[in-house]
Amino acid sequence: MVVSGHLCTAFVPWLHAPAPSAKEAPSFFQLPFFRLCVGGRSAVALFFLITGYVNAIGPIGKSRSGNTDAAFTGIARSALARSGRLVLPTFIATMFSWFLANTNAYHMTKHVDSTWIRQGWHGQEPTMSAAFMSLVRAEVETWTIGWDEYDGTQWTLHLFLEGSMMVYMTMLATILVTPRARKTVFVLLYLFCWMSGQGITSGALKGMNIVVGMFLAELHNQYKDSATSVLPAPIPVVLILLGMFMSGFPQDSPDHAAWSDNMAKLMHALTPKDTDIRRYWDSLGASTVILGIFFSRNARRVLTSPVFNFLGRVSFPVYLLHNSLIKSVLTWMVYLPSAMNPPRNAKGEQLDLQRGSTAHMFIAIAIFYYILYRMAMLWVQYIDPLCAKIVNAATRWAYDETPSHNGLNGHAGPKWLNGIVEKSMLPS
User: Fold this and answer.
1) How many angstroms separate the CA atoms of 139 and 254, rounded?
2) Fewest C-beta atoms under 10 Å: which of 13, 186, 301, 427?
3) Which keywords label this protein (predicted)?
């Protein structure tokens, strides 16, 4: 969804509005529900929901069982390893984009007719020292100011890290309390984030979704496998459909359609002044969808199918790689015919390169998706294990744990069991 949203922004940005104008009828992909095919903002909210869920599910389970020592130990280990699990893959993805930029792979990007792609252009540095300095700057600023000059889509990564630490802090403060008290804390935190949502980085995007993710982890530990029989059958379906409708709140010009204009007026009345109400609808929509899925047996069955498991497994490398491939491989395919015979004005000055025909575009995008997911599979196969080994080595050094050839922590055991135990120690 994020990739399709960025492709929409690059080539058909007018689809982000609910209609061409207040007096014109909408196209198919501007309608509620169908517009989710070209809008990825609610998927970013889902990333934060999942971050809250996977980082809280273990500590909450141990707290409910009374195993508080194990809960505190788990929080300590996860908090230490989490930074590496986010920073290392992002570091490699930035290096990949840096390499493309400094081998002039983004050269064509500067001259295309797509504003979004053109804004992502980065030129080749004049010297090797300047190139390495720009790499260091980009790697550091991704986590300090939230901007990577080689890949602007990485602006969310430092928020994911902050969100994880928000989970660990909340878990640390609530391990010893009752589940009822912890739920009360979640409600108060959600209200705090709602009222502090000045801009997209404080409440509406990060905080609200992180809290809902933790609340979902609480529900998981409360209901276990019986969750799908808690609500009457129609209610989860209604929740999913309602969430999808809310997630479709348009990114641009909500006043072009009555349904989105009414949604905008409602949210303006419920939120603090000058907030980005789009992020509120994204967050509410994603939260409602995931709650419906949690209580729905059929939705769970679909989303645990091999296809969706594959999509989930490669989702992070897809997110890290897609912008670099859009600015290189996809741009080459879409604009190469025009680049071979650049358009010029009457004065002989070069004009923006023009994209190919509709059929040409569809073929180029299909090839782009194939390359993207093949690279993501290779990433999962080679890069993820490398990052995991580095993080494991660093945490073992930090804990002064010397791995033994006979098993983990010096305890003898079969190799297959040692491997499972070692993998289970990694945070999700």
Assistant:
1) 36
2) 301
3) Membrane, Transmembrane, Transmembrane helix
272 close to 195: Cβ distance less than 8 angstroms = yes
Q: What is the pLDDT of residues 206-241, one digit of tens each?
A: 999 999 999 999 999 999 889 999 999 899 999 999
Check if the beta carbon of residue 293 is closer than 8 Å to that of residue 240: yes
Whether the Cβ atoms of residue 256 and residue 17 lie closer than 8 Å to each other: yes
The region, left, alpha or beta by phi > 0 then psi within -120 to 50, assigned to residue 18 is alpha
* Beta-ladder partners of 353: 112
pLDDT of 341? 87
Distance CA 207, CA 83 (A): 18
**Whole-number Å distance between alpha carbons of 30 and 231:** 32
Closest CA relative to residue 239, chosen from 223, 210, 216, 259: 216
- DSSP code of residue 127: S
Q: Nearest 5°: CA angle at 131, between 125 and 134?
A: 105
Residue of 425, 59, 424 lying closest to 214 (CA atoms): 59
Distance from C-alpha of 162 to C-alpha of 147, rounded to nearest angstrom: 15
* Token couple for 89: 């893959």
With a cut of 80, say whether residue 420 has pLDDT above it. Answer: no
* 326-370 tens-digit pLDDT: 999 999 999 998 988 888 888 888 889 999 899 999 999 999 999
Alpha-carbon gap, residue 21 to 234, rounded angstroms: 36
Helix, strand, coil distribution of the chain in percent, nearest 5: 75, 0, 25
Distances (CA, A) of 159 to 47, 66, 79, 151, 385: 11, 31, 15, 16, 24
- CA dist 312 and 229 (Å) reads 25
- Distance separating alpha carbons of residues 331 and 117, to the nearest angstrom: 8
Average pLDDT (253-271) is 96
- What are the structural domain ranges in the chain? 41-313
Distance separating alpha carbons of residues 378 and 316, to the nearest angstrom: 12
Q: From CA 321, how far away is CA 379, in angstroms rounded?
A: 10
What are the residue ranges of helices labelled H in 175-207? 179-195
Provide the residue count of the chain. 428
Structure tokens at 354: 């023009």
d(CA 79, CA 55): 9
